[in-house]
Amino acid sequence: MQTILTKKQAIAHAFGRAAKNYDNIALFQQQSGQYLFNCLSSIPSNIILDVGCGTGYFSDQWRLTGKQVIALDLSAAMLAIAQQKKVAKIYIQADMEYLPIADESIDLCFSHLAIQWCSNLYTPLSELYRITKKGGVIGFSTLIDGSLKELQQCWKKIDNNKHINSFMTFQQIKQTCHSWKYSLKKQSWLLTYPSFICLLRSIKGVGATYLINGRQQQGLMTKNQLEKLIDYYPHSNKQFPLTYNLVYGMLYRE
Question: What residues contact residue 171 under an 8 Å CB cut-off, 6+ apart?
């Protein structure tokens, strides 16, 4: 239990440090989340739970459609910003693996790029299924293997240490969801940045990029490592590409 708690505390702390500048650097999170929002927005619902709401970007979109929004996040700093922006009716600081919410009380659960920080995907999905009303929907997105592959390949040329988090495969997510009625869709995003430093800042902005086994990696990247990464990184015309692979999932509450 101590290991799990330490990991969760580290994740919350990492996202908390990113909170103040998050909206300015989370353009990919906003763009990729819009697809999930659009898929769910036509579903009849009243009470929406935004799980891993961050600073409340999508909570606010749900609020503007007239929904009663519950904003939930592990990070107190993220949640505080969401509350300052008045994006929801209720704010809950909680772990999505242990939701303090009654059974069958939510019409629709929305979770964009949050569940990948859980150690076992089945646990948060089970919790979301538990709290969703019959006939309701759980919509989620998560990173899968192949994400950040350009950066990972560069690190392998420098040392054998693990610098990038591991993500589940599509098949593993499919197997996790097999207990429920579900649908899954894969989508790849290729982003480009004008410099390697901009690329690194965008990744750090998600808060948990360098959390390895629940611990913040010790020490900063050395100047020598940075220079090697830039040399090895595939780029042309001052454009640095970076791949994100996502799965968009729907669970249908029966």
Answer: none
CA–CA distance, 25 with 13 (Å, rounded to integer):
18
Instruction: Report the candidate in 249, 210, 244, 251 with the shortest Cα–Cα distance to residue 35.
Output: 249
Tally of CB atoms within 10 A around 157: 11
* Across 127-150, average pLDDT: 96
In one letter, which amino acid is 70? Answer: I
Closest by CA position to 208, among listed 1, 29, 81, 83: 29
Residue 64 above 60 pLDDT?
yes
Task: Determine phi and psi for 23, rounding to 5 degrees.
Answer: -65, -30
Dihedral sign, Cα of residue 87, residue 209, residue 140, residue 125: negative
Residue 147 to residue 153: CA distance in whole angstroms: 11
**Confidence class for position 203, pLDDT limits 50, 70, 90:** confident
Output the CA angle 173-179-182, nearest 5 degrees.
65
Q: Where are the beta strands (DSSP E) in 60-205?
A: 68-73, 90-93, 106-112, 132-143, 181-193
Q: E strand or H helix at 240, and its extent?
A: strand 240-252
Q: Can you list the domains of the chain with their CATH numbers?
A: 2-147+165-190+244-252 (3.40.50.150)
Q: What is the pLDDT of residues 223-238, one digit of tens each?
A: 898 999 999 999 888 8
